[in-house]
Amino acid sequence: MFKLGDVSNGDEIVSSLRGLALFSDLGQAELEQIADPDWERRFKASERVLRKGFTGSGVYVILEGEATVRINGEELARLHRGDFFGEVSALLGSDPAADVIAETSLRTLEVPGPELERFLLGHPRVMFEVLKTEARRLHEALAWRG
Amino acid sequence: MARLEEKPSPPGDYPVVVVGSGPGGLQASYSLSRLGVEHAAISQDDSPGGMFRLFPIYERLLSWTKLETPCPVDSREYEWYDHNSLLADEPEQRGVMRDFMSRTFMVPSREDMERGLAAFAERTALQVRYGCTWQATRREDDGRLVLTTTDGDYRCRAAVFALGVTAPWKSPIPGIEDVPHYAEASRDREAYRGKRVFIVGKRNSAFELADGLEEWASKIVLASPRPVAVLSSVRARYLQPYEDWTLGGGTVVLDAAIERIEHRGDEFHIVAEGTTRPGRIELATDEVIAATGFTTPLRDLAELGVQTVGQGRIPALTNFWESEAGSGIYFAGNASQGAPGLRKHGVGSSSPAVHGFRYNARVMARHLAENHLGVRAPRDLVKRKELVSFLLQELTSAPELWAQKSYLARVVWGNGETEILPLADWLDRPRPDCVAVAVEENAAGEIYPAVYTASAGAVSEHLLDPQPLHDFRGAEYQRRLAEIL
Questions:
Q1: For the segment B171-191, what is each residue's pLDDT rounded down to a tens digit?
Q2: Over 50: is that where the pLDDT of A102 sits?
């Protein structure tokens, strides 16, 4: 079994991660550690990335392309480069509450659910950025309800 | 010219062309043959075996062929105990690798594996045109593919590329151009006697080198940015260097991003930055080997729309291992990992290994035959009253489901026809009411049956409990599955 290597100095995944708000505080060595070639996923337009009601999904960071969040086909939100999704179900160990569909050709970095805790604890600056995004989403949801 | 004509599959028009004679190409060619699909099989090599003609360099394979098993050796269940033989319909051609195993090791040597693949090709009468190198590809106005080779042009409706993930790939570390890749490491271990060896990389090929050089090198350092994932990346066979490191022996395993490699006289100087534990690392060494992985030699296929993943090294594929639905450009063998499937709980497929991709090739051949050539592949029938026991038997012993967890599923359609299909495709495709089952594994390493039911267009997931002996045929499972269905 020959798997992909694990050395990614200066490669295209590192280049894609650089410039995303989520990874903006990280240096080259830390970016290389995150840029696992086994985590790169590519989806074709209209392919399902996250499946509502199915166990075992991960957290996806969009490197290129667009996706939509949908429930029963209805579009709830549109996601772009730098956005991430799937973190709620991965953190809580629950099933996703919505589908996420690739709207264009989509390239992502997927952090597998079981590795999320180690990933976030190992990269505290990334965890802080995730928290800020969650706070913003909560704020927007409360503002909408109010 | 006379000699060319004696070889099988001369240039010309074929429904399908298979490129490659490693295990992926041989399995694809065999599976197409048994469906009655005429095809040309070509290979740049002069004999079968693919990557096993060259690798691994020093050590044995990682995958087992067990000689003593609870099931007959010519049965389908035996495939579970033999990860190295290719799949055959004829019972007498199953488990070919058994003939090349001694009772010294449960895993074959490289030479054993090469001999086993050659024996499969010969015994199943596969017709491969050796010494015929694919050079370029184009699509004609009628949609057909044309493969230009050293022997001439092949025109076809679909092509299966079984190229291996075998072309050496180096990460762009400054100075790495001065050091050999894993594939270029000296096969004579004497060359490393008493030397300090620095290995760039910490996955299979890196640990295979380290394991092979332990008795020769004076010191071994392995380094890459990510920590060793012991069970998924290295496997127990090459673990001696890892154990030496954890016990404080002569081997060192570093989590570090390598900044540059400087060649100074007889030595190399490595400059790196720690990752898991930040900090500057500088060291001198006599030899450096780049175990930085491999890539798929895709030649000009990007011009026909083939996209890539994994740092541009693997073709991005549909669930049926096609570059794009309807393109007619299929992949078999190690590159079939380009269709990742669901990766539930982060568990990847076994597609980079023979025991995984041999099933992909068989499913792919059926799909290709039906979708491009109008050939209807045969399907077994399951009687309604036997459905529960059939599915539980499959969940307990079907080698496809155990080798390719959460990846290949046993599907039974409403009319009782049954087949093995990629689970991800079945889940997302419009389908009539039917059922699919798969073997799955969660983050805790528990293995359990998953049942997917399609009803009125919607699919529901039902997870059954794990069973200590992995036997899901008991009364409780029967009751639970009957309830779900």
A1: 889 999 999 999 999 999 999
A2: yes
Say whether B310 and A38 touch across the interface (CB within 8 A). yes
CB-based contact B422:B363 (threshold 8 Å) = yes
State ipTM.
Answer: 0.89
Instruction: Please tell me whether the peptide bond between B56 and the residue prior to it is cis, using omega within 30 degrees of 0.
Output: yes
Residues of A whose CB is below 8 A from B274: 29
Cα–Cα distance measured from residue B179 to residue B177, given in angstroms and rounded to the nearest whole number: 6
Query: Cα-flanking dihedrals φ and ψ of residue B410, to 5°?
Result: -90, 115
Location of structure tokens 């009751």: B479
Residues A79 and A47: beta-carbon distance below 8 Å: no
Nearest C-alpha neighbor of B217 from the set B248, B191, B236 = B191
Quote the crossing angle between the two packed helices B475-484 and B387-397, to the nearest 10°: 120
Instruction: With beta carbons under 8 A apart, name residues in chain B contacting A7.
Output: 171, 173, 200-201, 224-225, 258, 292-293
pLDDT at residue B48 greater than cutoff 50: yes
pLDDT: which is higher, B217 or B310:
B217
Buried b (16+ CB within 10 A) or exposed e, B244-271: bbeeeeebbbbbbbbbebeeeeeebbbb
CB B405 within 8 A of CB A56: no
Q: Does A104 touch chain B (CB under 8 A)?
A: no
> Touching check for A30 and chain B: CB below 8 Å?
yes
Rounded Cα gap, residues B229 and B405, in angstroms: 19
Least confident stretch, B174-188, B232-246, B312-326, B432-446 = B232-246
The answer, yes or no, to whether residue B2 has pLDDT greater than 50, is: no
* Contact criterion met (CB below 8 Å) for B325 and B155: no
Beta-bridged to residue B418, according to DSSP, are: B380, B412
Residue pair B375/B37 in contact by the 8 Å Cβ criterion: yes
Q: With bands split at pLDDT 50, 70 and 90, how would you rate the model's confidence at A5?
A: low
- Cα torsion angle, B304, B307, B308, B314, sign: negative
**pLDDT of residue B232 exceeding 70:** no
pTM beyond cutoff 0.90: yes
Q: Are B460 and A33 inside 8 Å of each other by CB?
A: no
| Sign of the CA dihedral running A128, A120, A3, B341 | negative
Tell me whether A115 touches chain B (CB under 8 Å). yes
Distance of alpha carbon B455 from its chain centroid, rounded?
A: 34
